[in-house]
Design brief:
Elements lengths: L5 H4 L2 E12 L2 E12 L3 E5 L6 H9 L6 E6 L13 E4 L14 H6 L14 H10 L15 H13 L5 E5 L7 H16 L4 E5 L3 H7 L2 E6 L1 E7 L6 H7 L4 H9 L4
Parallel strand pairs: 3-7, 3-8, 5-6, 6-7
Antiparallel strand pairs: 1-2, 1-4, 8-9
The structure holds adenosine-5'-triphosphate and magnesium ion.
Magnesium ion binds next to helix 2.
Length: 259
């Protein structure tokens, strides 16, 4: 994977300064400083409970920051300027409730609600395009509950794409899908990034998979302990040092991040 050239892409999409977030009175993430430019594919890894989902939830505005600032296209989270510009695929996306009867096309159409034109028309052309982009044309009228895990994840991604969001955040999209589906999903995300100019911020436990695809990797454990090009992502011993752990017992814990 080619490291992205920040100068070439220019536009800054996300700027986070000195962010900390508390949950139930406890500081979960702190001293976060992060800039993401247009066209980057950034992977976030870290042990369970290290604050990855918390960071994404703060970016989309679902959690309020305790201190610091978040700017997306220069605006704070939830600002009206951002309507339809951010696509969000949550950690729970693959566990879509089985009892909800909804076709792929209907699910994807829900994405138009966050687009600026939502109050005037539902743009079926955009829905069709989003379904094509994730390769689900053949099952567009099938009930979502009948899809495989990988297909369901694609349907949720199409819902995020339909508003023509430029900045897509995904929390563990690879959970519960087999290797082939995983590879094709990564390829889809890679294409969205390279061919459609989307900017992607993706959390995954699957270190091997994310290293194959992301240009840039972040290791988060309460704060950012590594942020750099994927080919410079540290090996396990160095990671253990970053985490302040005795390397002799660290490999088991870090291994458990995979899969
Ligand atoms: N609703 C909540 N109220 C209070 N604390 C919470 C809440 N949700 C999560 N936490 C705590 O915040 C910390 C970070 O959780 P978060 O879900 O962001 O971690 P994560 O890195 O996404 O973990 P995982 O890899 O398991 O998804 C954990 O210590 C967790 O116990
Ligand atoms: Mg999480």
């Amino acid at each position: 994977m080619q490291p992205i050239h920040l100068e070439a892409t220019g536009q800054q999409i996300l700027k986070i300064e000195d962010l900390s977030v508390r949950r139930s009175g406890k500081t979960v993430i702190k001293d976060i400083n992060l800039n993401i430019n247009r066209g980057e594919f950034v992977g976030i890894v870290g042990p369970n409970g290290s604050g990855k989902s918390t960071l994404l939830l703060a970016i989309v505005g679902a959690l309020k920051q305790h201190s610091g600032s978040i700017r997306i296209y220069g605006s704070p989270p939830l600002s009206g300027q951002l309507l339809g510009r951010i696509g969000w695929v949550s950690q729970a996306a693959s566990y879509f409730p089985k009892h909800v009867r909804i076709s792929v096309r209907e699910l994807v159409s829900l994405g138009t609600l966050s687009a600026k034109t939502a109050f005037f028309l539902t743009d079926q052309d955009r829905v069709t395009k989003a379904i094509q982009m994730v390769g689900l044309e053949d099952v567009q009228d099938v009930d979502v509950s009948r899809l495989s895990g990988g297909q369901r994840q694609r349907a949720v991604i199409a819902r995020a794409l339909v508003s023509e969001s430029e900045f897509i955040l995904l929390d563990e999209p690879l959970v519960g899908i087999d290797r082939d589906a995983r590879n094709s999903l990564l390829k889809l995300l890679d294409n969205l990034c390279h061919e459609k100019g989307k900017t992607i911020l993706m959390v995954s436990h699957d270190l091997t998979a994310i290293r194959q695809t992301a240009h840039r990797m972040i290791f988060l454990e309460e704060t950012i302990r590594f942020d750099g090009p994927t080919d410079r992502f540290p090996d396990l011993d160095v990671l253990a040092e970053l985490r302040g752990i005795d390397p002799a017992c660290s490999s088991i814990e870090i291994d458990s991040m995979e899969g």
